[in-house]
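Re: folding output
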Amino acid sequence: MSESRIPIPTVDLRPWRGGGPEVRARIAATVDEALQRAGFLLVTGHGVDPALRAGIRRAAREFFLLPAEAKAAYAARVGGRGWLGPGTEANGYAEGTETPPDLKESLTFATHEPFEDPAVNAEWYAPNVWPREVPGLRPLCEEYLARMAALEKELLALLGEALGLEPDFFARHMDHPTYGFNINWYPGVEVVGAPEPGQFRIGPHTDFGTVTVLDREAGRGGLQVHTDDGGWQDAPYDPAAFTINIGDLMARWTGDRWRSGRHRVLPPPADAPAEELMSLVYFGECTPGTLVESVPAPVGRVAHPPVDSHVYLRHKLDSITVD
């Protein structure tokens, strides 16, 4: 990938945890500026073992290489639990763009704890479906998701302080989130075929929720980020870092002070058609029923109408589903 000129800084969480007021204020200001300009950060010092991430990739790849009929036993729709096969999802639809389906497969998981409200359970709690053929995947993912929950809480406290608000301003709305976790497999053209015009591994879109934590691999057909002044550019990459971006609900919450980071994943490159990548994507979400109201000026810049977090999420998930 070419060198990126996008203003996406790297934030080390270690001095944030242990630094004094001046250090923390400097980090908070860096975060605020980056989320205003691009909606993206790189984060190091998170403490998540690279071996855990590598183990998930190995186990998930075993699943993705199974015959299609074996994977079909776990087939799910977008927003469900299980396998999202080829042709299931087109993220460009979220922007109102008619695009071919995304060139990927996914395994998708979410909360393992049911809610007290039966109606919420019916809508948002479907038990996770773990592939029998790859028994090692479940303990790896459950450990990873526990680490993601802790990291998300830390990031939300940082975001609250970056806005000059109390540290639990966001976190208090996420005591029992639905969240989402996708393992996205981007195989080469020998699996997905030659890309159609306007077809991507993931089409241009913004995420829907609060904070996304992405563990990705570098590749020529990898992540690109869009900014107003630079257009589409390759996202910076650091194998030790997580790529963090905020979604639509967080942007609304901040009154559009921060932008929901627009991004896409390029198709398999013509000069490396067999390239295979895999991403681990944790989508932060709120507790169902959270009312997202824009922070007023001078922090916020646009007063969006209040929205129920999960009414919004359901609409967006439905919008990217290929019927």
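--- second protein (sequence, then structure) ---
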Amino acid sequence: MSGGIGTARGVALSVGAVLGPGVLVLPAIAVRAAGPASLVAWAALLCVSALIATSFATLGARYPDAGGVATFTHHAFGAHAAAVVGAWLYAAVPAGVVAGGIAGARYVTAALDAPTSATGPVAVALLGTIYGANLVGLRLSARLQLALTAVLIATLAAVLTAAGPHVDPQRITPFAPHGIAGVGSALAVLFTAICGWEATANLSADYTHPTHIRRVARASLTVVAVLYTGLAVCTVGVLGDDAANSPVPLMGLIAPTNQPWAATLVAAAAVLFTAAASITFVAAAARAGLALARHRVLPAALAVTGHDAEPRRSALVQAAAATTITIAAAAAPHTVTVEALMRVFAALLACVTLAGLLAAARLLPRRRQRASAVVAALAVAVVAALSTTYLMAPAAVASAVLARRRTPSNPQPRGDSSSSPCDRRDTLKQDPLTALGRIR
């Protein structure tokens, strides 16, 4: 990014990385799991989020590098661990993108007052746009991404301003209808809401000065905490139990305003941001596949790129996976739900974040920094454990990656560990997590 990243641009990019399409549905899913006690889950995760952001910011300032978590994991634990982290990301993205596409489609059909049967075609069109953009090599500019982040923040601020006066304290009782188990379930799915701090590490090499990284982390934490706290309180205080049954909770928050244009505005912003965030995630996953293929974790054919170095074969595999998930969601709508896909996505990303925090605990020089990373890692490990059966997804991915890397007929690239793509400057641009933080 020309000119480097200053504090203001860094805050916008970091906030945009954390605030993803999940905000469209996560508050309602949390209320369904825990009732008003979902506020406890939000508060706990925001505290954990602060520790995660601080740890990644410290790592980024100390090791300014475009490789992000994959690089740190390789430095701390070797090539096998880095390969698993990249594969977790590669597997997570189709589930998350499809969930975001369906959620965005619901907002469109609600705004147009269309029948629910229109949700499927709208979701397919949205997903086609997302994957098509990557197949033709489209890259969103920094200005466009920043503008989209600004639209999201402005939209959420407008929704919270409109909904705030309608918060009813009586809706907060009974506080914990599903007990501690419900809070744990809400914690597991809400983890998706605090993913994205890896962007601090991914962008570290592009900052005009390393000291900006910590400053950006502090400012971004403030913005995210204010927006998420307001969203959680308004969801519980305005919608109450009705939030659990609403596929478009943001529209429910603005319903009391009786403004005819409000629903359309929220739907347009939701779709726009869903597309922008998903395009970035697909770009990241496509490059993860390219790096994994070059190091024989995935079939070598995926390492082939066109004259413009675009990983289209890897993107096609991502598109095929998303298509399969979409067909499954249409065939079994009560099993392959948005919530289930979000939980799979959360479980995989929790493992990615945990790997980065463990690397921080090993790499950072100061005892206080290591202690902070350890506390965050323990918290993320607990959240990951609360995913229960959804942990089968990262376990299966890790087993498949390690089995393939140890297969004698699948030799590793020659050279010592220092030749890993996580260390070599000429292949850093293709590293698994780079595109999550780097806006092209």
